[in-house]
Structure formats: structure tokens, C-alpha cells
Amino acid sequence: MENGINFLNKTVTVQIDRPIGTKHPKHGFIYSLNYGYIPDTISGDNEELDAYILGIYEPLETFTGKCIAVIHRLNDNDDKLIVVPEDTCFSNEQIQALTNFQERFFKTEIIRDNNYILWNKIIPEFSVTNLENSLSFYKTVGFVIKYERPENHFAFISLGDIQFMLQEITTKDKWTVAPLTYPFGNGINFQLEVDNVDYIYNNLKNSSYKIAFDIEENWYRQDDKLLGNKEFLVQDPDGYLLRFFEDLGEK
Q: What is the pTM of this model?
């Protein structure tokens, strides 16, 4: 039995048995993508491993391209490869939208290579006085380093869908347009939604980081309903304000 994950970043040849525009023989929906299988493989359903072709929007008989992702069905033992032309990229959101004509019937997750980074549309970059000190703080919160350039004193970090860039200040820093004085970022705070705000709060307290305002529940009016946040505010080593919160729902 083939594991779809083993095909990530590999070049594969797909035999197309359901070209774009054809109808599913049983359920009747129309294929908005070319769909086929990898010959001489066995998937979890005891048939060939299936694949969607993205980036080519005319009927095909065969296609050779790169597998950039795997759609793993959580309620069906039948992974689907996402195969695209070389040097072509699709985000998770694009993959979900393009394959929804069939995958809407299943509960799925998209699996990417460990080195894949899904970039947010906006990523704050903090100028920091000491990268090592900043990384110690953010690792205490739970951030991980996705990649770094030690020679530039730069790190890209993430916590779930939260992404920051950290750049240590140098005397030739072209991004500094005015003198920086503590606290940096005065006048702005970053609201960061997390799954377990108590865990982060306790980690920071136990590591003796100063909490700007203590953890509390707040309810904010939106039209005729209230939105609940369990939240606290903390300053990082350079004074940037971070407001961590956990969603409490609405009432």
C-alpha cells in the first residue's frame, strides 16, 4: 500500500481517467479538474493512488508534474495527490477551493512538506536589540523558528497561523527611519488568538516575564451580541505589546 506522503515533492506521471468537464459515473457532479491515478500503485481503498491536476485547464490523457501536497481524508482511507506543472505554486486555500467539487463530501486536511511555509498576507517584522533574548521570550510563548539567517541576525517564527519576523538592529539598518527608544512599537498592540491562553500566561509568569495587564475575561459588543475574550497583555524584551486571547464565543 502506498502512502501519499511519500510522493511529496516528487515528479509523478498521472494517467487521466476523468478529464476536466466529464461527469462522475455514480454521483453525477462535473469534474472541474483533470483527475486520474498513478499507475502501479495501491492506495488505502485497494485501488491506484488518485491525483488532481492543478494548473492545466484543458482535457488531458496523461500528465507529468510535481506533487506539492496530499489531501488526506479523515473519514475515508483514500489520499489524493495534488500534482502541478514544475515551478507552480498553490496555497492550501486555493487547493481547497479547486477540489471542493468532490472533496466537499469528506472531512479532509492538506499535508505539505515539512519545509513548506504558508505565508500570511501580512507579517510584522520587529526590529529587536538582541535576537537571542527575543527568541528566548518567543520560544517561552510557544513560537518555533521556521527559518533563520544567523549571518543577518534574522529569524522567521510562527505559532500556529501567527507569523513574525525578528531582525536585530544594526548600525546600517536601512529600515530604521527614526531613532528607536524603549518601548518599541509604542501606540500599537498585536492581538494574537491562541488555543490555550492559560498555558502561555503561566509559561511567561513562571519565566518571570512582566505581564502588562493580568489575565481576565472581557466581552465586547458587536451590534446586538457580545464577543468574549479571555486575554492578557505582555511586553516582549523590546517593549512590543502582545495581547494573547482565547475565544470564549458569543452571547
A: 0.69
